[in-house]
Design goal:
The protein has 11 helices and 19 strands. The strands form 4 sheets. Strands 1, 2, 10, 11, 12, 13 and 19 form a 7-stranded mixed beta sheet that branches. Strands 8-7-15-16-17-14-18 form a 7-stranded mixed beta sheet, with helices on one face. The protein binds flavin-adenine dinucleotide (FAD). The site of flavin-adenine dinucleotide (FAD) has 36 residues, from α1, β18 and α11.
Length: about 400
């Protein structure tokens, strides 16, 4: 039975960033991840053919100059020179089978009439639908803007709290406004996982958590057991809730109240010469079977183009590939490679801040138990890293 200072369950960016902070403080840190690779929704799919290799983001794809905690980690890891710009290709709208600009989906008169409300209205206690219908106009919201919002967390966002959709944070002036990394986001995940002081166990799903002799004991599906005085969960809320049933029922119950959505994603890789679709950053198609198609055209490759379709749950493969080939305008044989990914994202509702305050107060009374993830201050990468930073400060007695 391995003895650790801290065991972290979940190897997405939340768990990785917390592991980074713990290892920096000299703590013996073990990170347990169910998948074969770390990254979670921050992982990129890798494809190789002969000597050509290609990566495609199956979850997150863009970082911003306001991601200060993430940038701090990147700089400490010595990989700031791997930051690369994203090509300026358009976010587009698919309507009546045609790829168009976003502006083409907006009624300019309605926008001009409602736009000034932005200076008058506060987002507090307003849902996305209530707030943005007043800023862009009810028709613009319903016909176009809501579909862009739905594309962000791949689910209906009408009832999300307006102040948690797009948060404004202080920006770094010395960093590109938006960027990714050479080798995709996976390269950052791999770099953190390889840090000295972090022992990473991939392909190992945590099955249960119990207490023994005042310590946490984590058992995994592959029969391993880890004991630590400190436990951190960096998992989707429902899984964290299940694992905490035996050690803290109050926290487990409060976690179970949170709603979430599964994102069913299919990635396809196509040789450049086999597709004529103009380069796009993404396609949003109102009321379609997919919430968004995010392309790799933002980082052009010599040989391939890649497209990740984020579908509504419950479709079979035939339906998904029918739609993929229609949207890309190619036959199935032209698809050189496919991959799939299931991500979990929170479904935030008004009152979420109060929910988060309550969980923090419950954690305050729990013994060396920490929670990080994308369901606290927001679901952006920086929200995850900020939460991990705060939880590490609490661990270190700074909060
Ligand atoms: C399609 C999509 C696009 C996005 N685009 C962006 C973007 O461009 N920019 C941005 O800032 N944010 C974006 N986001 C949001 C952001 O990527 C996520 O909120 C964030 O990566 C979540 O990280 P996490 O570590 O909290 O959770 P996850 O990434 O879900 O990590 C949780 C990990 O726990 C593991 N796990 C689950 N059960 C177990 C178990 N029993 N034992 C061990 N491990 C387990 C999972 O395999 C997973 O690796 C996007 C999200 C999605 C889904």
């Amino acid at each position: 039975m391995a003895q650790q200072d801290v065991v972290i369950i979940g190897g997405g960016i939340s768990g990785l960033s917390l592991a980074f902070y713990c290892s920096q403080a000299g703590m013996k840190t073990t990170l347990i991840e169910k998948s074969k690779t770390v990254g979670g929704s921050f992982a990129s799919h890798q494809y190789s053919s002969n000597n050509d290799s290609f990566w495609l983001e199956m979850g997150a794809h863009t970082c911003y100059s306001s991601y200060q905690n993430l940038l701090g980690i990147v700089e400490t890891c010595g990989i700031a020179d791997t930051i690369i710009p994203r090509e300026k290709v358009p976010f587009t709208l698919l309507k009546n089978g045609e790829v168009k600009s976003i502006m083409s989906g907006l009624n300019i008169m309605e926008l001009l009439v409602n736009g000034p409300n932005i200076f008058r209205l506060k987002k507090d206690n307003m849902s996305v639908k209530e707030y943005y219908s007043k800023i862009v106009g009810a028709n613009n919201y319903r016909n176009t803007v809501s579909h862009f919002f739905n594309a962000v967390p791949s689910q209906m966002t009408d009832d999300f709290p307006a102040d948690m959709m797009f948060k404004s944070r202080p920006k770094r002036k010395d960093v590109l406004k938006n960027y990714t990394f050479k080798g995709g986001l996976q390269s950052v995940a791999n770099t953190i996982a390889a840090r000295k002081g972090i022992e990473v166990r991939t392909g190992s799903a945590a099955e249960s958590v119990t207490m023994s002799g005042g310590k946490y004991v984590v058992k995994t599906e592959d029969g391993q057991e880890y004991t630590a005085s400190t436990l951190a969960l960096a998992l989707p809320s429902a899984i964290a809730s299940r694992l905490l049933q035996n050690v803290n029922q109050a926290v487990a119950h409060h976690l179970s109240l949170l709603k979430f959505a599964d994102v069913d994603s299919v990635g396809v890789v196509v040789r450049k010469e086999n597709i004529s679709l103009k380069p796009v950053a993404a396609i949003i198609s109102p009321n379609d079977t997919f919430f968004s198609m995010v392309s790799r055209d933002t980082v052009p490759d010599n040989n391939f183009r890649g497209f990740a379709f984020h579908f509504r749950p419950g479709l079979d493969d035939n339906a998904k590939f029918k739609r993929i080939t229609e949207v890309l305008g190619i036959g199935l044989p032209k698809i050189e490679h496919t991959t799939t990914k299931m991500n979990v994202v929170p479904s935030l509702r008004l009152g979420h801040r109060e929910w988060a305050q309550k969980i923090d107060s419950l954690l305050g009374g729990a013994k060396n138990l920490y929670l990080t993830g994308n369901y606290f201050g927001g679901m952006a990468i920086e929200d995850c890293v900020s939460r991990s930073h705060d939880e590490f400060d609490r661990m270190a007695g700074k909060r």
